[in-house]
Every structure is written in C-alpha cells, then in structure tokens.
C-alpha cells in the first residue's frame, strides 16, 4: 500500500501543522517590528551599493523608490526623501557611519536566522562572538538579496523593453509576469539555500521558493483590493493609519516568506519518513524500492570506492544490487577483508553514532552495485521521529560486531 506521507494531502496538513507548532504568525509579527526599524538603513546601504557598482545615483534612487513602495506603500515617499537627503552628506559614508548602519540591521537578520533554526527544529547555541559574526553574515546576506532583487529589476526592465519591439502587446504583460516570477523564485531559492540549516533537495528548494514567490506576487493586488474596499479603515487608526498599513504589509510579507520555509521543511520530512520502510520489514516491496531509489539511489562501477578508510563522511548504506566488500588497510600495507555485503545488507552504522574517521574502506567487487545512500543528518531526523529505530540500529551493529570483532578495533 502507498505510504500516506507521499501524498500532497500529507504535505498540506503537515505544513499547516508546522505553521501552528512554530507560531509562524508570531515570528512574522516580530520580524515586521524589527524590519520597520531596519528598513531605512537597509535602503541607504543598498542605494550606496547600486549607485557605486551598477548605475548612477539618480537611476538607483528611482528604482529603490519602486522597491520601497512594494515594501512600505504608505511610507515609501517619506522614506525615499530621507534616504536621498542622507546620501547627499558624504560625511555619513565614513567607516563609522557604515558600521552603524550595518549594526542597525543586525537584530532583523539575527531574528530571521533564529526563525530558520526554529522551523528547522535545529538548536543554534554559538558563543557570543560566533553569534555576532553569524549575525553580520546574515545582514550581508539580506543586503545581497535586496541588492540582487533591485539589480534584477534593471535587467527585467531592459528585457521587457527589448521584447516590446518584437512581441505583440498582449504578450508583454504575460512575459513580464513570468520573468518576474522566475527572478523572484531564483533569489528566494538562493536565500533559502544560504541560510537554511538543513540539507535540502534542490527540487524541494525550487518548489518552495516558487510557491513563496507566487504568493508574494498575488498578495500585493489582493492587499490593494482590500484597502480599496475598506476605504474607511483610517477612521479607527486616525493619523496612525499609514503605520498600520505598513506594519500589516510587512507582517504579511514575512508570513509568506516563513510559510515557504515550513513547506520546504515539510517536503524534506516527507523524504525522511520514506526511510522508515527500511526498518518496517517492507524493503522488498517494489513500489517502495523504486521510490527509495529515485531519492537515495546511487550506482557504482566495479572497484569503485564507496568510502575510504580514514574519511570523515557520515552516510548509511543499503545494498540493493551487486556486492560490496569492507576492507581495512593494516600498518604493514596489507588489506584485511572484514565483511562481504550483498542484496539487502546494511553498512555504515558506526558513522551514525560516532564522529571518528572510517575504520575501513568499502569497495565494489561486482561489475556494478546499486546502493541506497542516506545522509547521517537524515537518519538523525528519523531517529528523533521514531526512537525505536535506534534500538534496531544498535542491535544490527551488535550482530555485525559479533560476526567480525575487527569492525570496532
């Protein structure tokens, strides 16, 4: 029977459960608060980068005004006036001024990084200086994303102007929307990849980034429609209505961004749960093996080295086809055979419970061999999901040691 976690319904339900479990809406509210204070320094730094590296200052200020209107529609004009006035003062661009601006963005980047770790169920307990360095790197990452997003707008505009002379007007809007979706997806995927503390499959990364980019592009007209329908929202908030709209918009932006991360983690969890069948006495079912092979399968030729003695790689293996031999090189230089592995055999258990270098090499002795190759990080997640698997692994390791005590010497 098909596994439930392979269905889209599982992904949807697990993502919604993760949103509730990790309080994504609360994280979004905190990020929007930090962003409100960090936005002006962030835009000033982006303006400096763009005006010195890409285009002229005047052109950069126009494009940044468009970006700011997307982020804070009610405050964009006032912010850009302040940004323009600040950038006219050369004294502000000294080293101290640059570091102050950089440090102002640090709380936003730090909270964003901690949100990644929370959603990924990973602990991040660095030392004080290690944390400061990571926060600065996160700030630079945020700067780079905004910089690339703005620079991509220049490229997109040039491409659309070029297409306008070769395509009918009816296709220009469609092409512009598709190109914008492609660029936004690429930038979000790059940011997810750089800051997510998990090993994510590239397909899951691209899919999650595309969902995030699509939601983000659809959210702006929907939010504008909401404001146009509720024209009297200012009666409640009075002179603070602009602040309310800006915070609400930032809140929605961060919510979409974090929902994309939840989706990415859920898709990874689906792959991790696929491994449970290895320990449920079901690996002989063909449909299960095919699914496992697509995700974790790897083929080696004869005499290929799966892992080398003394190596630091941490993987867990299952032989689906072919023969693999574990051998250890003695100090005299001779090779001591330890174990012959064939269809259905597992190896690599020691690496799951130890960070020590491999005590033997695994070499393919048949014409070819097909293996299931699993990152130890995935096995760690699976052990947290079902601790009973750890008992089976320890029993398996104990049986192998009894057969050949040299495996632990």
UniProtKB/TrEMBL annotation:
Residues 298-400 form the Cyclic nucleotide-binding domain. PROSITE patterns: CNMP_BINDING_3. It is a multi-pass membrane protein. The keyword Coiled coil does not apply. Keywords: Cell membrane, Membrane, Transmembrane, Transmembrane helix. Pfam families: cNMP_binding, Virul_fac_BrkB. CDD domains: CAP_ED. It is found in: Cell membrane. The chain crosses the membrane at residues 31-55, 91-112, 133-163, 169-193, 205-229, 249-267. It comes from the Bacteria. PANTHER family: INNER MEMBRANE PROTEIN YHJD. This is YhjD/YihY/BrkB family envelope integrity protein.
């Amino acid at each position: 029977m098909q596994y439930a976690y392979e269905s889209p319904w599982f992904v949807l339900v697990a993502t919604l459960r993760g949103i509730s479990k990790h309080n994504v809406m609360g994280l979004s509210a905190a990020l929007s608060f930090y962003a409100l204070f960090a936005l002006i320094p962030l835009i000033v730094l982006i303006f400096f980068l763009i005006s010195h590296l890409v285009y002229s200052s005047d052109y950069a200020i126009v494009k940044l005004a468009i970006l700011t209107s997307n982020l804070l529609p009610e405050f964009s004009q006032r912010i850009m006036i302040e940004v323009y006035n600040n950038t006219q003062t050369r004294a502000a661009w000294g080293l101290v001024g640059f570091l102050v601006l950089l440090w102002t963005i640090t709380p936003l980047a730090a909270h964003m990084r901690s949100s990644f770790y929370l959603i990924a169920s990973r602990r991040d307990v660095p030392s004080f200086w290690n944390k400061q360095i990571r926060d600065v790197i996160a700030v630079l990452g945020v700067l780079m994303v905004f910089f690339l997003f703005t620079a991509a707008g220049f490229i997109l505009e040039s491409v659309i102007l070029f297409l306008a002379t070769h395509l009918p007007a009816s296709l220009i809007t469609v092409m512009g929307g598709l190109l914008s979706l492609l660029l936004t997806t690429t930038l979000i995927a790059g940011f997810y990849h750089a800051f997510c503390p998990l090993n994510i499959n590239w397909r899951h990364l691209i899919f999650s980034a595309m969902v995030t980019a699509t939601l983000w592009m659809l959210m702006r007209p929907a939010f504008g429609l909401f404001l146009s329908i509720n024209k009297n929202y200012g009666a409640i908030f009075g002179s603070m209505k602009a602040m309310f709209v800006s915070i609400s918009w930032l809140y929605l932006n961060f919510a979409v961004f974090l929902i994309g991360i939840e989706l990415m983690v859920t898709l990874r969890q689906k792959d991790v749960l696929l491994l449970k069948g290895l320990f449920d006495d079901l690996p002989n079912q063909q449909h299960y093996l095919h699914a496992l092979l697509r995700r974790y399968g790897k083929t080696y030729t004869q005499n290929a080295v799966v892992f080398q003695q003394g190596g630091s790689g941490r993987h867990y293996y299952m032989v689906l086809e072919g023969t693999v031999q574990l051998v250890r090189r003695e100090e005299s230089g001779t090779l001591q055979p330890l174990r012959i592995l064939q269809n259905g055999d597992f190896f690599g258990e020691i690496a799951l419970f130890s960070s020590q270098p491999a005590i033997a090499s695994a070499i393919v002795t048949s014409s070819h061999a097909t293996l299931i190759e699993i990152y130890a990080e995935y096995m760690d997640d699976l052990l947290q999901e079902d601790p009973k698997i750890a008992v089976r692994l320890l029993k398996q390791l104990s049986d192998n040691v009894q057969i050949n005590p040299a495996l632990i010497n």
